Amino acid sequence: MAVFTTVTEAELSAWLKDYSLGQLQELQGISSGIENTNYFVTTSNGRFVLTLFEKLTADELPFYLNLMAHLARHGIPCPAPMANRSNQFLGALNGKPACIVSRLSGKSTTAPTSEQCAAMGAMLGQMHVAGQSFSQNMPNPRGATWRAATLPKVRQFLDPLNAALLDSECALHAQHNLLHLPQGIIHADLFRDNVLLEENRVGGLIDFYFACSDALLYDVAITINDWCMNSDCKLDAGRAQIFLCAYHAVRPLLDSERDAWPTMLRLAALRFWLSRLFDKYLPRDGELIHAHDPAHFERVLKNHIATKTTIWL
For helices 216-227 and 114-131, what crossing angle results, to 10°? Predict the structure, then answer.
């Protein structure tokens, strides 16, 4: 989340006339993140989040909004899109596609406990099960084609050793087809800052705008690479095991997924190393931007390569 497009209170008040959400009381920009413009919105009827989409087009957005509505109907605590008076989730504001969704309770954590990792593992399993009945499909926009296109753009900024590592990892994963693994809707970005907790309960999953159709295990690896990582960028085996056991109790993992686990952890780390390199060296202009350090996932990837992590359930 970030602020690239400015919205004034007067502009938002006029836009909200097409909704039954009450009168605007407060508008506050959200500075974290790097993809879309986001504001906290308080009206006389409740608390919401306004999003203006900086990259995604009006044609692409129904997938994400319909997915959130579907998951919310199936008991997953995610933002529920608000329909306007024409019964549409998507509108336009200041020249950008825009939507407003419910604001969920809870707050993110920077140091998940074992109990919170268990809760997150179970919730991810529930989300994957609920997503099985969602009829729309979205190929992963950050998949093999994106990796191949992004690699030459960022490798020029790396020293020879890291450039060689990036080359070899992209080549390795280009050879692996994930279609033999269980497929479905994945969030693809369930870092700690995209999960709201109320003590040991998951109160909300947010920021679904990287969601897509891919291997479910890939989503597990992305999440564990953030939730169960120590400060030295090495996986905390105990918390990872707790997370996986809680997930497995909801959606049992197959033998094929257990075999693919070490490679999947590396793929998940590579994806975010690549995107963070791109965001660091080829940034967009914006009022409030907090680009993440790509060196973190460089270290995570190197540690995964050095230590083959297995699943024991």
Answer: 160
CA gap 102, 91 in Å, rounded: 16
Q: Give the CA count within 13 Å in the CB-facing half-sphere of 306.
A: 9
**Domain containing 195 — which CATH number?**
3.90.1200.10
Q: What are the pLDDT digits (tens) for 227-239?
A: 999 999 999 999 9
Average pLDDT over residues 14-30: 97
Look up residue 270 and give its amino acid: L
Query: Does residue 161 share a domain with residue 25?
Result: no
Average pLDDT over residues 190-213: 97
Answer whether 0.90 is exceeded by the pTM: yes
Beta bridge partners of 288: 3
> Which domain covers residue 96, as residue numbers?
9-102
> Domains in the chain: how many in total?
2
